């Protein structure tokens, strides 16, 4: 622990008195209880035109002290506007913003902790927020999100299982090859349209679309449409009944297998589950997806595919999937 304290005005006045008595630097230091290097540095810094004046020395110290403090990074208007736009409009997380800025500019412009402090301090809050809103804090990924308890029981029926997830090839398990997709649905209002999402395990690239209803036939139609032109080596959905007709997809894709995780183990399909959470930022629970244009759905997917990910070294899924480089920040 550092016990050093800066010289006070009283000590500076005593220094002038001892110097007038022709004390040596070592003797002045002993009298003040300071190191002789402190006294030497004080005289060297604050002697003006051959004279040392305590009040002048104190003023110069105060100016240097103020100047040495680091400026807040978000005081830069241009950087503040960029961070605010990426967080509020594009839904980037603080880590994604800080990491991508460092990747593109080859230096740390600011830390994600700085962005979190700004969020909690209300710097990004909109003045038009409704009464009772907690502001931009609500834009954080998991803030206020309810989760199932350990006692939660799945009430959906079982479906025929073709392959267990443990049988997946090494290219899927270690994320070394494109074409191994995790798939799921995002429900809107009950009985109406839903979203079908597929995430490539290697690149985290997202494809999908809107299904007229959350039925096996409607979901199969979307699966076959969005996988056209994509490398497809395997599919890993959950055990929802909307994937009950997976055998028809396997046949249409010339034998591409489906692998199913055990019940109540969403972490086995973590890439898709995490991406669905990102999609939910645009389509909150209760949204009537029937009223959402397909063009908007695809625009959201494109936005997420151009969003940097920490696990990809702050590259975007698009860059990894297509081996291209973008300029985003």
Describe this structure in words.
The protein has 329 residues and is an alpha+beta fold. The protein has three domains: 9-68; 74-139; 167-322, Ribonuclease H-like superfamily/Ribonuclease H (Nucleotidyltransferase, domain 5, 2-Layer Sandwich), CATH 3.30.420.10. Helices cover 40% and strands 9% of the residues. The strands form two sheets. The protein has a four-stranded mixed sheet, sandwiched between helices.
Please outline what is shown here.
The protein is an alpha+beta fold and 329 residues long. It has helices at residues 9-20, 25-32, 36-46, 54-68, 77-89, 94-105, 112-120, 170-173, 216-226, 246-252, 270-280, 294-305, 317-322, and strands at 47-48, 51-52, 180-187, 194-200, 206-211, 234-236. It folds into three domains: 9-68; 74-139; 167-322, Nucleotidyltransferase, domain 5 (2-Layer Sandwich).
């Amino acid at each position: 622990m550092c016990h050093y304290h800066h010289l006070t005005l009283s000590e500076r006045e005593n220094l002038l008195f001892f110097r007038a008595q022709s004390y040596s630097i070592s003797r002045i230091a002993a009298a003040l209880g300071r190191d002789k290097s402190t006294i030497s540095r004080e005289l060297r810094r604050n002697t003006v035109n051959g004279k040392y004046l305590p009040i002048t020395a104190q003023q110069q110290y105060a100016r240097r002290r103020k100047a040495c403090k680091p400026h807040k990074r978000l005081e830069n208007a241009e950087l503040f506007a960029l961070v605010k736009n990426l967080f509020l409009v594009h839904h980037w997380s603080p880590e994604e913003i800080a990491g991508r800025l460092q990747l593109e500019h080859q230096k740390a412009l600011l830390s994600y902790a700085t962005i979190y402090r700004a969020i909690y301090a209300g710097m990004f809050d909109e003045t038009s927020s409704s009464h009772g809103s907690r502001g931009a804090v609500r834009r954080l990924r998991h803030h206020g999100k309810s989760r199932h308890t350990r006692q939660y029981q799945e009430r959906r029926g079982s479906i025929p299982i073709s392959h267990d997830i443990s049988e997946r090839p090494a290219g899927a398990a270690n994320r070394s090859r494109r074409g191994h997709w995790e798939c799921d649905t995002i429900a809107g209002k009950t009985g109406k349209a839903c979203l079908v999402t597929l995430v490539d395990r290697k690149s985290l690239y997202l494809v999908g679309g809107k299904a007229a209803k959350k039925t096996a036939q409607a979901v199969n139609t979307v699966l076959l449409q969005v996988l056209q032109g994509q490398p497809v080596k395997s599919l890993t959905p959950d055990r929802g009944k909307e994937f009950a007709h997976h055998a028809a997809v396997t046949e249409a894709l010339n034998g591409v297998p489906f692998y199913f995780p055990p019940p109540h183990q969403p972490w086995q399909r973590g890439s898709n589950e995490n991406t669905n959470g990102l999609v939910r930022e645009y389509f909150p629970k209760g949204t009537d997806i029937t009223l959402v244009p397909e063009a908007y759905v695809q625009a959201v997917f494109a936005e997420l595919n151009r969003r940097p990910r920490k696990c990809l070294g702050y590259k975007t899924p698009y860059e990894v999937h297509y081996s291209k480089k973008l300029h985003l920040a």
